[in-house]
Amino acid sequence: MRHWLSVVALVVSFSYPACNAPQVPPEVKEAKAQEDELWRAGAFVYLPQDYADYRGQIAEAKERLIREKAKFPWFRHYKNAGEAYRSALHEGERILEETKKIKEEKSHSIASQLKSFKNRINSLRRLAIMINGGGLIRAMTMRADLLLAEVSLLHEKGNFLEAEKKLKNVAFHVSDAENFVSLTLARYQDEALIEEWRKWVEETISESREKGIAVIIVTKIDRRLTLYERGRLILSFEIGLGRNGLFDKLHVGDYATPEGRYRIKDKLPSSHYYKALLIDYPNHDDRERFYLNRKKRLIPAGVSIGGSIEIHGGGNDSLTDGCISLENDDMDLLFSLAEVGTPVTIVGSLSSWKEILVKENESSRNF
Amino acid sequence: MKNIIKGLVLGLLVMFLYAGCAKQPTQEMKEAETAINSAFKEGASIYAAEELEKLKKDYDAVMEEVNTQSKKMFKKYGNAKKMLAQVKADAETLKASIPTRKEQARNNAISALGEVQAAVEEAKTLLSEAPKGKGTRADIEALSADLKGLEDMLTEIRQLIEAEDFFGASEKAKIVKEKALAISEQIKQALEKLKK
To answer: Would you call A139 and B146 a contact, using CB atoms and an 8 Å cutoff?
Structure first.
């Protein structure tokens, strides 16, 4: 009987502690959930070193837990393991918060860059139209625009690192296109030239005031023709220019619109493009410059100076061969007010380059 | 009674020796690891990233179990073996599903490329039919340049498909298609304006 009691006591002594073994700390489960959350948040991407340290802490805590689990139930004490888990959880929370903060900052920065590049691309599109021969710029801009759409998609998906990488490519293409525009419009950054153009316009308006006549001013960069009478602005129209309209005309077939002080040579009530006012291009200054350029071999041999530059109808959104084109209704009005001998002053711009850029940026913001 | 106690003690001793000397399931561990690596090599990280991550976590859990048992006086690897068999089976199922997923992604990319080509072609046709008069030449030239930019992207999409970046190709194709459709819309609106 005594022996039986010993056996029962042995069995009870084995099974009792097993039933009353200390519980695994709740932090173990919490840590597993936190590990998942950190992985999904991308902590290993944004804070790789901190995340590696955290993993080290978790591994250490697990090791302590395993050591305890390996013991007989009545020898298990999870205090140390629990503390290690709590410390790791605390660090995990910090990393999670930090990761969220970094992602938020990146998201804001990318969103602001997206907006800025969008404005620059719209501005480039308008500048490409402004300089007519903007095919290359449009192609460059389209490339940047497509990349920007990819960045936008990555931003939406929360893939900020990839978005930042692609933004660098966008910056490259946009800067390339801007440099190209800048080269094309270099003359419009020449303050001395702009001052000379301003002087021509002031003298032309003074002539209108003093002689009581009508004068025509064409500002190429603004795509605008204005008519003054007795020194007062009477009419203002939007115009179309040559394919290379912002360049100064040097020779036949360059598709540029000439700059200078001209006069209406002839009124053509019926021309190829509705009504037309023929101007006296080339004038004395144009010829002098042409011969000088030919001497310097800046103009191909056998090429003439060109002529037949008109202000004509046919629509203002066109690409002419160098003429100035207006809507037919506007042409009717202008034709009725202009006479043979009316001064026509054509300038590149009256605004500084800075003012042009500000105007362009403002219009692209309203795009 | 003495015999019973002797038998019990002997039994306990045998059980202790048997359990204490139980070996880690190294063969099963190796097999499970190989199966996961094999699924990864097949492209699971691209076509089934979440599922691959779950597999890795399952494998980590098994390792934890093995580690726990290895430190116990009475080692029991039965559960770990079961878990390893499950991980191996899951990895093999995942690996087997990759070619189908890859094929699906390839087909989607090729179909997206076809849609982009059609959209670009439509825009080009519309542009070629637009009246090239005084009032439209600038617009036509600008839109042609835009289309040229889009056409260049077709080559890039083809290259991505060749490089088996099917998701990248599909995403790019979607963006280019949207732009091509926008250009077509612009042309249609311009043509409408001309009619009026």
So the answer is: yes
Chain B hits for A69, CB-CB cut-off 8 Å, are 68, 71-72
Q: Please answer whether residues B145 and A139 qualify as being in contact, where contact means their C-beta atoms are separated by less than 8 angstroms.
A: yes
**Which residue of A37, A64, A142 to mutate against B (max B Cβ within 10 Å)?**
A142
Residue A229 burial (CB count, 10 A): 15
- Whether residues B171 and A150 touch (CB distance < 8 A) is answered with yes
Q: What confidence score (pLDDT) does residue B16 get?
A: 53
CB-CB under 8 Å, B175 with A153: yes
pLDDT at B9 (0 to 100): 65
Q: Which tokens belong to A79?
A: 């205090």
pLDDT category at B1 given cuts 50, 70, 90 is: low
SS3 A351: coil
Model confidence band, residue B146 (pLDDT cutoffs 50, 70, 90): confident
Alpha helix ranges (H) inside A189-324: 191-211, 284-295
Percent helix, strand, coil in chain A, to 5, is 60, 15, 25
Can you give the pTM of this predicted structure?
Answer: 0.68
Pick from A145, A146, A317: CB nearest B135:
A317
Q: Where are the domains of chain A?
A: 191-351
CA distance A347 to A196: 9
- Amino acid A9: pLDDT: 63
Go through B81-119 and write b for each residue having 16 or more CB atoms within 10 A of its CB, e for each that does not. bebbeebbebbbebbebbeebbeebeeebbebbebbbeb
Distance CA B136, CA B151 (A): 22
ipTM of the complex: 0.73
pLDDT tens for B124-141 read 898 888 776 555 666 777
Q: How far apart are CA A127 and CA A138, in angstroms?
A: 10
Checking if the pLDDT of B195 tops 70, the result is no
**Residue B194: closest CA among chain A residues belongs to which residue?**
A315
Contact between chains at B142 and A72 (C-beta distance less than 8 A): no
Which residues of chain A are under the pLDDT cut of 70? 1-21, 130, 132-134, 317-318, 360-367
On chain B, the residues whose CB falls within 8 A of the CB of A14 are none
For A191-351, CATH number out of 3.30.160.20, 3.40.50.720, 3.90.960.10, 2.40.440.10 equals: 2.40.440.10
CA distance A150 to chain B (A): 7
